[in-house]
């Protein structure tokens, strides 16, 4: 397997077109927006202010304006959403329900409807995978089902859609690997996009 060690350069911010960050704030006793329509791969970020919470619940609890947390669900408070840093990545399709625990009885609640990714998936299409994930220092990328990718660009994008690293690769083929030094990145969730004559679906990773 060929290995291309990529020296990634920190660059200025630029727009990202494939993944969206949906910001939810609190206005009075309501979430704004109360309903978020997202796609797989999108990020939802809460800016929770005291004394409110954003606590995931079951659909039946949500319908009843209850406040019992969903086991394994998210639970964001003002203490863990400093500067809007509490978020989820929409990894699968479906609806997620949440409430403000102290004010669920008043109907303070919201929902996230996640549709399948807007990125078209074609059977046998080239794919990109990453390991280890989460990662502290070196992230390895593998390419499969790609006959040839030439003049490719690799971008690392943060959750608000800004490109924080970028590099170019002359040519890649199926089975080739890329090694990326991500040690300089702050902790958080990032996306990797590789595009050229054969654009691959973006993937995400967690930086520890």
Overview of this structure, please?
There is one protein chain. The protein has 208 residues and is mainly beta. Strand 17 (188-195) and strand 18 form a beta hairpin. The protein has one helix at residues 59-63; strands spanning 3-6, 9-10, 21-27, 30-32, 35-39, 43-46, 53-57, 75-77, 86-89, 94-99, 109-115, 127-131, 138-144, 149-158, 163-172, 177-181, 188-195, 203-207.
Salient structural properties:
Immunoglobulin-like; 18 strands; 1 helix; mainly beta; 208 residues; disordered N terminus; elongated
How many individual β-strands? 18
Record the strand order, biggest sheet. 2-15-14-17-18
Straight-line N-to-C gap = 27 Å
**How many structural domains are formed by the residues?**
2
CATH H-tier superfamily of the largest domain: Macroglobulin (MG2) domain
Q: CATH top level of the largest domain? A: Mainly Beta
Give the overall silhouette.
elongated
- Overall CATH architecture of the largest domain: Sandwich
Name the helix and strand elements from N-terminus to C-terminus, one letter apiece: EEEEEEEHEEEEEEEEEEE
What is the CATH topology assignment of the largest domain?
Immunoglobulin-like
Q: What does the radius of gyration come to?
A: 19 Å
Which regions contain 5 or more consecutive residues with pLDDT less than 50? 1-17, 117-124
Helix content: under 10%
Mean pLDDT: 77
The main sheet comes to: 5 strands, antiparallel
The structure class reads mainly beta
Helix count equals 1
Strand percent estimate: over 45%
């Amino acid at each position: 397997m060929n290995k291309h060690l990529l020296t990634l350069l920190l660059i200025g911010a630029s727009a990202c077109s494939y993944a969206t960050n949906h910001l939810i704030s609190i206005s009075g006793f309501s979430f704004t927006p109360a309903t978020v329509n997202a796609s797989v791969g999108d990020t939802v970020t809460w800016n929770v202010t005291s004394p409110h919470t954003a606590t995931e619940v079951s659909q039946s609890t949500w319908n009843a304006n209850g406040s019992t947390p969903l086991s394994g669900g998210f639970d964001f408070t003002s203490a863990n959403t400093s500067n809007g840093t509490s978020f989820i990545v929409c990894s699968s399709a479906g609806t997620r329900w949440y409430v403000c625990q102290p004010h669920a009885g008043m109907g303070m609640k919201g929902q996230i409807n996640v549709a399948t990714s807007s990125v078209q998936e074609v059977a046998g299409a080239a794919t990109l995978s990453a390991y280890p994930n989460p990662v502290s220092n070196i992230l390895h990328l593998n390419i499969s089902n790609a006959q040839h990718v030439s003049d490719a660009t690799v971008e690392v994008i943060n959750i608000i859609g800004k490109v924080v690293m970028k590099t170019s690769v002359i040519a890649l083929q199926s089975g080739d690997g890329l090694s990326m030094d991500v040690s300089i990145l702050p902790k958080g969730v990032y996306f990797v996009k590789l595009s050229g004559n054969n654009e691959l679906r973006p993937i995400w990773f967690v930086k520890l």
